[in-house]
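Hi R.,

As promised, here are both runs. First protein below:
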Amino acid sequence: MVTREKLYTAEEFFELAQQPEHADKWWELVDGVIVEMPKSNIRHSVISARLAYLMGRYVYENDVGFMVGIGAGFKLSSHTMRSTDVAFISYERMPKIPEFLDGAPDIAVEVVSPYEDIFLKANEYLDASTSLVWAVYPDDERIHVLQKAEPRWQELGIEDTLTGGDVLPNFSILVKQIFDKKR
């Protein structure tokens, strides 16, 4: 749902979103338009938390970067800010954790909701220098891996292995580890 008619810059959007009266809002900025996002459901949150844990364990044990959870905005262009469900940023790209993320993550993870145009969102991340986008489909228990390198798109099923590619070398988990065991 669009909440404003004025076109905003990423900086204006960030300032607006930080105001206390907007603390309960979940917004993204898409081509200058503020779009209100629905809250995620419990399964969505469980999958996000599980991925953050599995990735984070590898990231912190190997001291290669930091994880970002849901709610942090990434400035992908002067008029676009998106929020991932989970993200990884390497210390090589960003040696210190900033207050404002001016740029894209190295890996963006999106737990896909029925209303989302995930391919539009994934391409925005890839165009802004994200190396890998993992689109996680809870109902189908599959993952689409989108990347700049070839192959640009790959589908993984429940029995496949998800890897960090060149971004997180030696990171791998079974896709079935991501999804709930009890539904």
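And here is the second one, sequence first, then its structure tokens:
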Amino acid sequence: RPEDVRQFWHRYAAPTGSTLVIVGDLSGVAVEQLLSQSLGQWSGSAGSRDAPFVAQPRRQGAVVRVVDFPGAVQTHLLVGRACPPVPVDDRAGLRVATHYLGGFMSSRLSSRLREQKAVTYGVSAVVEHRGAAAVFRVESAVQGDATVESVADILDELGDLAAGRIDAPVYEAAVDNLYRVAPIQFKSVPAIASALVRAVLEALPDDYFDKVRAAMRDATPAESIAAFSRHVDLQRLTVTAVGDAAQIREGLRGLDRIGLDVEAFEEDA
């Protein structure tokens, strides 16, 4: 309802405590005048806010979910989970771990699914920091008839990492690749603005990006394994498969990998 929107706005949107991020060539731009004209009449103070939300797991076991897309020749896979926010000190190791899994062309998952088995054009593994939660996900579109095998491969790679079974050359390549490409995230004006907004929302220290890059370069396999194991609970994964349910349903229902205790099997039309 419109009234609900207005109440939300008045409760949370106020100049007090707000941060404005401006990135670009500001030479010759009267910034203060521009702000006065555009935001000068913005007034009010936000009311009391609830305690910050922190994501907490709702299930004790894993969930396998199939979304039926009859006749699909591919299956879109999403394997992951949400977890509470990751402390800054753990982020470098966790970033290296996910990069090792599926962050570049020579990663473990890319080599296994794309190069060796040719069942996908690409696969990615990332952790997204969203303030109230961190979200780990592995994502790929695979051949429909390779769905179950691909999920098993993904789970096996996750299990190997958590158990400390590391492919040393791939790990070294992941660290080198991450360190070299890290500055690219600041290659454009929107990218710089996005990084600054993230720093504000997460109350990150001013030297966060430099420190994380240096920490990634120095992260040992043991540190990355430990960070991954602390924050990615493999027994609480959600495996989502969007594809032809008639072709993939039974194989996924009988999924038996890394001791996965499937709490629920769900299917949507």
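A quick note on the second one: The chain has a mean pLDDT of 90. Let me know what you think.

Best,
J.
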